[in-house]
Sequence to fold (352 residues):
Amino acid sequence: MPCKGRGLNAKVSKSRLSININESHWRDLNPRPLDSKDGRNLILCPAGKTGEVTISDVVTQIDDDAFEECQYVTAINVDEENNTFRSIDGLLYLKNGKELLICPCGKTGEVNIPQGVNHIRNGFNGCASITSVTIPDSVFDINRSFNECTSLTSVTIPDSTFMVLFSFNGCDSLMSVTMSGELMIVGESFGSCGSLESLAISDRTGFAYDCFTDGTSLDLVTVQGRSDPAITDYEALLMSMPGITAFTVDSGSAVELEKIAGSGTVTKMIFTSVSVNADMEGLTFKDSSGMVISDSSSLAGKTFVVDPDDRTVWNQVSSPAQGNDDLVLYGGMIAAVIAIVGVAAIFLVRRH
Fold:
């Protein structure tokens, strides 16, 4: 990967760092990171660097891609006297702890981001060995982060987060995503997440048209809410994910069902017990007896499938689980009777 700057022309590979340096501007600290001559600007960490890296007390600037090729660095430490940066559990933050800057690519296992962090920007990209991350409810935005985290299996974005931009792409082990806040997901986010099985969003979530694309096999979405005005752009969401065939409404707010039905791909709507205020305008829902449902609260706890001849008509389906429960109940009762009769028979035989 070529890296260019004033007085610097470098070629980086995993095994070798080749640098032509203009001595009036730069000095070579190989195999340590490359700094500006006064030591205040960290420009490049060699790709072959392994283990921990320590940033000195005089460094005040770190280039955005300084650690981009350092997949073997496991921790970034900072001298306690540094007034610009700090390190917490091997991750790099601004001194005040409000912005997470870099998680080294060699970091493994679970990561807990501390409370008080407000911004995650350009962090965690290429961290292929991180399996889980805890994002605190102090985080406002996630920007160009968590891309190519190929071992990450689930993520929960807290209520405090109002924007996710260009993040979580190429996370091919990611199976579950939960978003509960009033946030916007924009700019090619959650693309190429081929293992995604569960998506739970807030009824206050907005989407751009280029989210959840390229290889996502998700077929079920759950929308959750708190009786807030619905702002979710379901049309954009469903256009991004043409494989969605089932939609679970787990919200007490007026979810616009017509937009969900209008996607052309959704064939099943599932309503939880809290879904009592869904907006049925433009659609007709019928109960299991074929009667038209006029009160949206009657949708709660029921499942409906689209009429094959008319997408504006949705018919209730009986829950197979209920039938199974009845069979289990009756079967249990019969088994109990047989057991009682058996015990009585043995008792009588022994008496005689």
Observations:
- Residues 326-352 form one domain.
